[in-house]
Amino acid sequence: MSKPYVIRVSSQKGGVGKTTVSVNLAIALSLAGSKTLLIDADFINPSVGIHLGVEGANVGVRAVLIGKSSLEGAVVRHNPSGLDVLPGEIVSRPHNPTAAQMQRLFRQIFKTTYNFVIVDTPPGFFPEEEFGNFGEAIIITTPEMSSCVSAVRLANDYDRTRLKHELLINKFRNKGYELHVKEIEEMYDGTILAILPDSEIVPIGVSERIPAYLMNRRAPFSSAIGELAEKYITKAGFEFQPKKSNSIFARIAAAFRLLFGRN
Amino acid sequence: MAQPYIVRVSSQKGGVGKTTISVNLAIILKQLGYSVLLVDADYINPVVAMHLGLEEVSSGFRAVMKGRARLQNVTTIHPSTGLHILCGEISQKQFEPSYESIVRFTRMLEKTKYDFIVIDTPPGFSKEVFVDISEALIVMTPDMQATTSAIRSSQVFDKYHIRHSLVVNRVRSRAFELSPREIESAYGSRVDAMFPEDDVVPMSIAAHIPAFLYRKRSPFSKAMLDFSRLYSARTEQKESGLPAGGGFVAWLLGLFRRR
């Protein structure tokens, strides 16, 4: 049995779209047929619950970290996508996990049968001694100077701890005042994993508590997420049967098949 | 003599516009005739210098926090406005100031002669939230995630009796956003200002000139000016009014004066 493929979604600057990318990528992977776990490890501001409409978790990642709950006991199923979620508890007192707690959580995760584990992190650097060298990282940036500079700094941090990382540009509007993809590529000194367009379906999705990828799969943002999910599935070497589409055409086709007895 | 009025700009969620608002508030207060210090206390991701087009510094906020430098020796002066800035050092080493050093730093700021001190902070809560200052300015965007974190911040500030106000940034007045009324009823108190989403902000950051200096008449700059004027009531010092100029007439006059 193979170990789960762990993807840490990170950025040093806040508000670039870590949670949006984590949630939508996890849903796309899950809908593509892989067994996926999404962990809300943003201890500063857990908001995966808001994005998915699973709110008010009393038991979540903290409970697992301090050993109050088992991993299976704290995982919640997101029914529309079949995604498993380890939510973050909303507490007024911030608490940072110790290195030992983090290591234990990941040892538990490696014993599971998940194909993919997506970890949403707080803004900033999760040092090696706390998080361990688990999986690989997606560094999220927006096409502007301040977030690119901090992305490059984070990339340097990861290089020092020998963690594999790739860069994703989010909220791309293709405007003159933005940085060009080439410029960002040069600053980062590596290839760019994906470019996600700035799209209103993201804030609309959050306000409706339905992730953008589920709301409209044909929107440019969603198709870019879908491609990203495919990229990871190929990379991990998994083969899946995608779940049947439940669009109106598929349903009509299914009804016809039933009616005329053709298979 | 009166103590400086210290405003700490904070939010639990990142990317809501803390630095943009800190920089423009400080610039406008300076333009209104006050003596102002802007502190880049965002030790996770210091970008104030980038917003203002200043060079990176080798000693700044961290050096002062660690007691390795004196404030007056490491403040940078913004060339076109004369605003004083304590920049953050860009360093590979992770750094988190201790509670004691933050208290010491705040007491030191209180002894300075500035009218206003604006502090830009990293996202989230660290020990600094428990240090008493004049006002915590909570910045949020009109969405659910930012609202819940703003409410959490305000609860902490209430608990420690720190005066706090709330501004909503990047308002687009779209149906999927939370309305000011929804935010007020969730937050339980008044929204002090709303700043519109404005292309001038990313453009000005790309040009390394604060939005207020980049285009004074843009919707964001106007809202920022109205908001900054509220602070005049919070100090005994009188404002001297914005410096004239910027318009076509001033440009013409300038041409004549040069002759």
Walkthrough of the structure:
The complex is a heterodimer of chains A (263) and B (259). Chain A has helices at residues 18-31, 48-52, 61-65, 71-74, 99-110, 128-131, 145-160, 181-188, 201-208, 212-215, 220-236, 248-260; strands at residues 5-10, 36-40, 76-78, 83-86, 116-120, 136-141, 165-172, 192-197. With 263 residues, chain A is of the alpha/beta class. Chain A has one domain: P-loop containing nucleotide triphosphate hydrolases (Rossmann fold, 3-Layer(aba) Sandwich), CATH 3.40.50.300. In chain A, strand 3 (76-78) and strand 4 (83-86) form a beta hairpin. In chain A, helix 1 crosses helix 11 (220-236). In chain B, helix 1 (18-31) crosses helix 10. Chain B has a single domain (5-258), classed as 3-Layer(aba) Sandwich (Rossmann fold), CATH 3.40.50.300. The termini of chain B are far apart. Chain B has eleven helices and eight strands. The mean pLDDT of chain B is 89. The chains are: A alpha/beta (263), B alpha/beta (259). The interface between A and B is large, with 38 and 38 residues.
Secondary-structure blueprint of this entry?
The complex is a heterodimer of chains A (263) and B (259).
Chain A: E1 5-10, H1 18-31, E2 36-40, H2 48-52, H3 61-65, H4 71-74, E3 76-78, E4 83-86, H5 99-110, E5 116-120, H6 128-131, E6 136-141, H7 145-160, E7 165-172, H8 181-188, E8 192-197, H9 201-208, H10 212-215, H11 220-236, H12 248-260
Parallel strand pairs in A: 1-5, 1-6, 2-4, 2-5, 6-7, 7-8
Antiparallel strand pairs in A: 3-4
Helix pairs in contact in A: 1-11
Chain B: E1 5-10, H1 18-31, E2 36-40, H2 48-52, H3 61-65, H4 71-74, E3 76-77, E4 84-86, H5 99-110, E5 116-120, E6 135-140, H6 144-159, E7 164-171, H7 180-187, E8 193-196, H8 200-206, H9 211-214, H10 219-229, H11 248-258
Parallel strand pairs in B: 1-5, 1-6, 2-4, 2-5, 6-7, 7-8
Antiparallel strand pairs in B: 3-4
